[in-house]
Amino acid sequence: MKVSTGQTINEVVASLDPQNNNPIVPTTFTSSVYYNGVELSGASVIFTILDTSKGLYNAAWTTGDQYGDYQMYAKNDNTNVVYISDVFETIPGGGLTTVYVGI
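Predicted structure:
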């Protein structure tokens, strides 16, 4: 997806037991943002709970100020399940103000 630099990306991530799909709440995530395949130092992903009954979290992160490809990685520390976002390409002049990606 093509977006602007400094773009906020909001992704819905589920925290579920991999054996029976029951929600696992609360949980913590280990996360990183990658720029052109290299981990971006200083970038952060903020997780907030959306729905405890479904184990849904919002993962909010921001693309950097350089043109190129950005991607978010998150590992659920309780289940070891890994979530990897789509690739977001920053381009001159372009994109929405906020991007929401749902399940």
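Summary: The chain is about 0% helix and 50% strand.
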